[in-house]
Amino acid sequence: GCPYTLPRCHEWRAADQFHNSSSLRSTCLQPQVRVAATAPAPPQDGAGVSCLSPKLFNGSVGAAGPLEPRAMNLCWNEIKKKSHNLRARLEAFSDHSGKLQLPLQEIIDWLSQKDEELSAQLPLQGDVALVQQEKETHAAFMEDVKSRGPYIYSVLESAQAFLSQHPFEELEEPHSETKDTSPRQRIQNLSRFVWKQATVASELWEKLTARCVDQHRHIEHTLEQLLEIHGAMEELSNTLTQAEGVRATWEPIGDLFIDSLPEHIQALKLFKEEFSPMKDGVKLVNDLAHQLAISDVHLSMENSRALEQINVRWKQLQVSVGERLKQLQDAHRDFGPGSQHFLSCT
After folding, report:
1. pLDDT grade, residue 133 (50/70/90)?
2. Per its UniProt record, what Pfam families does this chain match (predicted)?
3. Which pLDDT belongs to residue 231?
4. Residue 54, C-beta contacts closer than 8 angstroms, at least 6 positions apart
């Protein structure tokens, strides 16, 4: 079996519409190596009597005498016939290979351009609306690539059929062509060139289809993360607003009755426990922003400001609760029933 087959992007859901032929799983663009035969090769052009046949020598087998005029003419005619047939085959070969070289080069150029266009779609912006727009753009891009699939596979299959009919010796180095280049060497060079073009085209196609799938996943995952971080920030903002509303109702420590201090301390501890889950929410949005940055997706200015405000408000709330709890506990210690101040006043 050959180690190289025409590429198929197995992860692309619509890949089966490109081509349904089972030949794609078995065809191969590898050069086929000629194995030298031990027996003499027959004439390539189907010519009849060989110029070296002993029947053409003065009637005696194996004799080294001069050829008769008739035999010499026959030999010369055969040489001209072989030369003519070989030239005709080469011209037909060149015409066929030329019809493949142009579409193969066009495919290579088109795939290279699409690869650049795909790269230009990155990096993604850290905004839900912009990523949703990019998702639509990439979907249209993938459809454009998919629609080209049948034509690309058709040309690659034609190249495969051509190479199976005109194999070349893999280990043989290509030669620069001159007017003295043999017809066989010219055929070898043309076959090798078609094989190289087909190999490049198939590799570019495989790379592009794989990148399309990867980028689709990247866009989907980024959109999910942005939606999650956006929803989490909205929820945190609402929760912080409620907590800040409660904080706004706190009375100054000096205005509190001494005997109510224990109640205020207990109420503040319950308040702190009630809003402690916000800590996990704040950690979540910060982690999501970090994961996005690692994948080269940075939050938009608006989202960055919103995240910064979440962190600032959460920190201020924690400081406020900590400071008020300390003040209440200090006041209770200094002015409560067990304090020296309380005893001196009784």
Report:
1. very high
2. Spectrin
3. 96
4. 61, 62, 63
